[in-house]
C-alpha cells in the first residue's frame, strides 16, 4: 500500500467515524472511536482534520452571558445533548467534508492562522474600558474578563475552544470529557477541568497562572506532537512572548501578579507609585498623571481598589498628602 493510499484510507475512515458520531448511536460508539483514534497518531490527526472541516460549516450558538436572564432559555435542558448543527447545516457539512477529503484531506485554514476552528460564535465575549465582567458558557464554564478584553468561543460536540484576542481572562473550566483549548498568542493551553488566569501585557507578553487542576501548554499549531507539550506547574506564574513560535516560558513579571483582579482590587507588599498608577489607568476614563519623578518613586503597600478611579485617587492623596488637580486631559497628582 502506498503512503498516499494509506492516507486516503485513513481519511475515509475518519470521515465515516465523524458522520457516525453525529447519529443516534454516538454514545454507544464513543469508546470504540476513542480506541481507533488512540491506535495510531495518523488516525487522531485525520479525525481532527475531518472535524475541522465539518465545524467550519457549522453555525455555533453565542455563549450565554453570565447573570443575564433570557426568557427563551427558561425550559430545562439536559447537559451535553445540544446539537450545534441544524439538519440542513449537517447535510451541507457532510457533503463539504466528502469533497474536501476526497480532494486530498487537507483541512481548511481558519480565521486565526494555524487554528483549525473557523466557526466561532457569532457574538464574542467583550468588555469595555473600565469594565470587569463574568460570562457563563454553555458547558458550565465561567469566564471573567478584565477591562478591554475579548474572548472568541467555539463549542462543538467534541471540543471546547476559546481564543483570547486581547486583555486578560480568568477561566473556571467545567469538568467535561471534551478537551478545553485556550489559544493566546503563540501558545495553546489544553485541559479538561482547571482554574487559570491568562492575559496580555503592554509589552507583548502573555502571563499564565494555573491555580487548580492540571493543564499542558504547546506552541499553537503543534498541539498534536506530544514531544512539545509541557505540563503547567500549579501556582507558578509563567510568561511567554505572544509572537514566540518556540514558546519559551519564563518567570512572570509583577504585571500579572495580582490574583484578586476580578474583584477590582490589587494588593501589593511594595510597589512604586508610578507602577500602581499605571495599573489603575487601565480602568480610568481619563489618565492619572504624575509629572514629578520624586512622587513617582514613592513606594506604597496595601490593598487598593484600582478599578474605581475616584476612590483610588482619594486614597493616594490621603496616604502621601498629595494635591489632586482635575483637568480635561487627566487627573494630576502633585505635591501640596
From TrEMBL:
Keyword Nucleotide-binding: no
Residues annotated as domain FecR protein: 125-194
Keywords linked to the UniProt accession: Membrane, Transmembrane, Transmembrane helix
Record field: transmembrane: 80-101
Name of a matching Pfam family: FecR
InterPro entries cross-referenced by the UniProt entry: FecR, FecR_N, Ferrdict_sens_TM
Domain of life: Bacteria
Domain FecR N-terminal intervals: 12-52
Keyword Transmembrane helix: yes
Annotated protein name in UniProt: FecR protein domain-containing protein
Organism: Blastomonas fulva
Lineage: Bacteria, Pseudomonadati, Pseudomonadota, Alphaproteobacteria, Sphingomonadales
